[in-house]
Amino acid sequence: MNIRYWENNRRVGQTYEVSTDTVSVLGDDTPLVSDSALCLSLLSSQCKSTEETIKIRNKIGLGILICREGSEVWLYNNSNIDVFVSSATLPRPIDDYSRIEQTRVYKVYPGHCLKVFDYDLAEHLLNISSRRTRRDGPIDVFYVNVSFCKGWGANYKRQEITNCPCWLQLHLEPPR
Length: 176
Description:
Elements: E1 2-7, E2 10-17, E3 22-26, E4 37-39, H1 40-44, H2 51-60, E5 64-69, E6 72-77, E7 83-87, E8 106-108, E9 113-118, H3 119-130, E10 143-148, E11 167-171
Parallel strand pairs: 3-4
Antiparallel strand pairs: 1-2, 1-11, 3-5, 5-6, 6-9, 7-8, 7-10, 10-11
Domain MH2: 1-176
Protein name: Mothers against decapentaplegic homolog 6-like
InterPro entries: Dwarfin (IPR013790), SMAD-like_dom_sf (IPR017855), SMAD_dom_Dwarfin-type (IPR001132), SMAD_FHA_dom_sf (IPR008984)
């Protein structure tokens, strides 16, 4: 897995390569409990962040824990703020899986967790999408988007995740 950190539509810092099944993403310079942790404030020290982004990042605290367990990836919200997540494999009405380009945004409350990715379902979605032709190119089902504090999409003021002040893009490696 690798993680990219974004502030609105600007990518911040290098891609963070994760070599373990578990990684923590922290907001500030909270003392690291393991060497498998990404601290957003250290990444963003290289650029000028907006006041809104700084406020949100300061509230993240213990942040999120992302764990791969077999063919599933789980997100645990250890922060004091809501986290918003979308991926092609999150639950949706059964007849809606044919439209993998339209993903739903889920809110994960502080102290809660959510299965954010299912490799078995992703393989199934890849088979479906490979049989269809798309004018705007292929969809990569191995991405998970995570926004801290601010939601996006049809039910929110921000229509695109690139309008969110503080967010992550997780790229999960397809099984080999």
